[in-house]
What we know:
The protein has a single domain (6-143), classed as P-loop containing nucleotide triphosphate hydrolases (Rossmann fold), CATH 3.40.50.300.
Amino acid sequence: MTTSPTLHATAVLIGPKAVLIRGPSGSGKSSLALGLIQAASAGSTLPFARLVGDDRVHVDAASGRLLVRPAPALTGLIEIRGLGIRRLPHEPVAVIGLVVDLAAADAERLPARDAAETTISGVKMPRLAVAPGQNPLPLVLAWLGTALGVTPAAN
């Protein structure tokens, strides 16, 4: 039985690391997950994407990494708005590489460095804050496709 914290979140494995998607109910967590999975199946944007868990996931800190697993009752299930609950291939566990916060009140055009990370279960993680009403898929694809840690020189 899993005793790790349960988060109201969705997770998708993208290549070797997972994207953990948080946000209020109705903010588009499942839609973003489906968009990432579809981008990978199209083969042009992402090499691989598979659902880890939708709506509720368990997280565990282990050796400085954050692991995510689906909630047992929801394993392999995703809500597709307009279609209902559907079954998809899934991964039983993944290492989180990015946290996406949908409808984030602190989303900025040029985010401050401290807003670009979050801590979950004692593990610091890269974070992408998406403004309310903004389409998150292009931002997540851009984050995944650009070099990490590159900061322009200060004036």
